[in-house]
Amino acid sequence: MKDLAHVAHALAQPDQRPILARRELSERLISLFRADFLGQTQWNPEKGVFEKPLCYNRDQRMSWEFEAYYQHCDPISKHIRTRREATSTYEVISRRRLERSEYYCDFLQPHGVSHGLDQYLFEDGRIIGDFRVWRKSASFEFGRREKHLLSALHPMLKNAYSTMPYGDDLEQAVSGHGLLAVAMSADLQRYICSPALIDWIAHQNDLSESAFKNAVLATVRGKKNTASFPRFELRIGWRNVPVHSDCAILCTVIPRSGNEGLRQPGLTMREEQVTALVAEGLTDREISNELGIAFWTVRTHVGNSLRKLGARNRTELARHAGRPRQRKSARD
């Protein structure tokens, strides 16, 4: 149990950084739980929501999506929240029911996550946050070993949460492979581009870094959620955090490709059909009837398209599709 000793020692140290911002500790936790991903959030009792999410071994976008929308349709946490011990996903919900939920089809599955183990952290009888470990969909489920370990770590995790000030790291927020993004502090004093975005700007003959930054700042100051430019579209993600906090604003960039409008990377023909019908305002059931495919197949295609296009919801997915396309049935 060498990893357990290292984890316990690290959590006992006076370190105000979020747990998942500590790389060596996070790697030890991954090894200890034989997990693929880690997640942490803090609970805001006044609003009744989770805030300040972080992921490890997953694009930070997953955290932002959870905070902005998916925590509100999460069918798992409301049951685990009543428990004091570490609890696995399938202790509170059947696999069949989970896989039929919006939370799974549009959030967990697109991010390649299925098997979860969650420990809510309590202080003086109040929830202060939760710590989650996840495995890939194709992996085996968590067992008693991992549950006992996570429950045993509860006091140390709780103490680590109690000493954490808010301060997401901008570099971490934009470090996802291939993510075209800008992270900013709430007061706009800190601004950083992802490596992929810096490389993309460098290959644009008619776009300089200063011109790009001015466009982003103008959009944010104008309190807009989206903005279109000749070379790209901006989508702005806002977070309700103190003015001095880092990583309060995340802007994702969707490049345009020639005269073809917004590029839609990696969509299959079926996903393009489904996306076009979403843009026309059809429900998943109506799309199922239109294309002659199963309802849950439609949900899967919608989830895949959301992930590939970086859209947070159906409204953004429809915006990516642009003008409503002529409907084509798969039977034609």
TrEMBL record:
Residues 260-325 form the HTH luxR-type domain. Keywords: DNA-binding, Transcription, Transcription regulation. Coiled coil: none annotated. This is Helix-turn-helix transcriptional regulator.
